[in-house]
Amino acid sequence: MSSLPFDRLPRRLLITGGAGFIGSNFARYWCETAPGDRIVVLDALTYAGNRANLAELELDGRLRLVQGDIGDRALVDRLLQQEQIDTIAHFAAESHVDRSILAPDAFIQTNLVGSFTLLEAFRHHVESLRRPPLFLHVSTDEVYGSLEPEDPPFSETTPYAPNSPYAASKAGSDHLARAYYHTYKLPTIITNCSNNYGPYHFPEKLIPLTCINILLGKPIPVYGDGQNIRDWLYVGDHCQALAIIIRHGQPGENYNIGGNNEVTNLDLVERLCDLMDELAPALPVKPARQLITLVGDRPGHDRRYAINASKMSHELDWRPQVSLAEGLRQTVSWYLTHPDWWRPLLSPEYQAYYQQQYGEKNRLSKP
After folding, report:
1. Strands 262-264 and 229-234: what pairing?
2. Assuming Cys at both sites, which of 23, 129, 146, 242 could form a disulfide with 302, CB separation 3.0 to 4.6 Å?
3. What's the whole-model pTM score?
4. Which residue among the candidates 69, 94, 142, 204 is catalytic per the annotation?
5. Is there a catalytic annotation at residue 142?
């Protein structure tokens, strides 16, 4: 048994879904800020999990990447025991609303059943640990439903009202994490974040889809009238917030993490078009705004999300540092300089999904 106090012991961290967008950015952040910690990533490496996101970290031994499903109890038990994991940062999830409408079963299986399996395994593991355990459950603002234009932003006490299979599956996993704290005294913390953006974002999501379609000279699909509002959070700011919560957050608490950047989808796409016009040397279509195309709206499309992150500010002294203008510029620049990362992701499976969602039959008009 080490004589070091708990807060100075190296942490043994399991990051589920750590090869995905937010998870891989968080793994990079943790490697940079806590180089003495043991970091293990568990990821099923499905379509949105990409081993290339962590390639150099895996190659130089800064983390171990295990391919596997969080719903595989035997694998999870073995990994927790072998690595003596004391902290779980749980990102693993099916996360795209459109896909949840097409095939909700995968979302229930991963987000709800998988989270249950992980919580249950960790509950039975923690008695052998040298330091207090922590289970960080990373969730979304979509569990709160939709806001009207005059409504105040979501707070930690906003009632849940999920409107898509994705949001419902995440709400269910939030409830499980809360229940394991209150019933079993398992130290869990739940975070609910607004829309993230930044590097390593799979092309199906709005910002990377827009950037890549501009580079390819393809139409930029925008749902409905383009007036749906989202609060945008740069992924690096999110990672910093999560690290602070792991180190200083209170078990049993919820923390909302937002970017204080409410913009309509159409406004966001127009900003990306203008940045591409400025930063890209030779676009197939210029100005890029010519590519914007309204398509049939998503079923049950929430009109507005907004996060009140004052609890993070008051209790943990965290505030987002990257403005939307700065973050979008960094993100556009990243996609411009990393075609070797995104081009292989435009697979036949992705192309078939894209046509199903945004093909000619769904196209409406120019805005």
Report:
1. antiparallel
2. 146
3. 0.94
4. 142
5. yes
166 is catalytic: yes
Alpha helix (H) residue ranges in 220-295: 235-248, 265-279
Sheet with 363-365, strands from edge to edge, namely 220-223, 292-295, 363-365
Please spell the DSSP secondary structure of 58-105, one letter per residue. HHTTS-EEEE--TT-HHHHHHHHHHHT--EEEE------HHHHHH-TH
Indicate which residue of 86, 94, 141, 231 is catalytic: 141
CA distances from 68 to 18, 41, 59, 107, 112 (A): 11, 10, 19, 16, 17
Instruction: Give pLDDT tens digits for 72-115.
Output: 999 999 999 999 999 999 999 887 777 878 888 888 999 999 99
User: What is the fold, at CATH topology level, of the domain defined by 9-197+233-260+301-322?
Assistant: Rossmann fold (3.40.50)
- Is residue 141 part of the annotated active site? The answer reads yes
Phi–psi pair at 193, nearest 5 degrees: -110, 160
* Residues in a beta bridge with 214: none
Q: Which position among 144, 166, 223, 335 bears the catalytic label?
A: 166
